Amino acid sequence: CDHHSVDFNAIDFVFNEHRVPAEQSPDEMQMEDGDEIDAILYDQSRRIVLKVAGQ
């Protein structure tokens, strides 16, 4: 977020069509290697996809 000067509060993180709470860990979400979390910026025309390399 700092690299792109984006307000962290303007981003929703989504995994398996559900919003990801900040306090939830990959283990709690039952994520596996290669799973993706979508970072959705509602006030900008960008979309960032983050990849999980390991738990």
Automatic annotation (TrEMBL):
Which PROSITE patterns is this protein grouped with? PPASE
Which residues does the UniProt record annotate as the domain Rad60/SUMO-like?
A: 1-41
The signal sequence is none
The protein's matches in InterPro entries, at most eight in alphabetical order, are given as: Rad60/SUMO-like_dom, Ubiquitin-like_domsf
Task: Extract the Gene3D superfamilies matched here.
Answer: Phosphatidylinositol 3-kinase Catalytic Subunit, Chain A, domain 1
| Superkingdom, natural source | Eukaryota
The protein here is known as Small ubiquitin-related modifier 2-like
* Taxonomic classification: Eukaryota, Viridiplantae, Streptophyta, Embryophyta, Tracheophyta
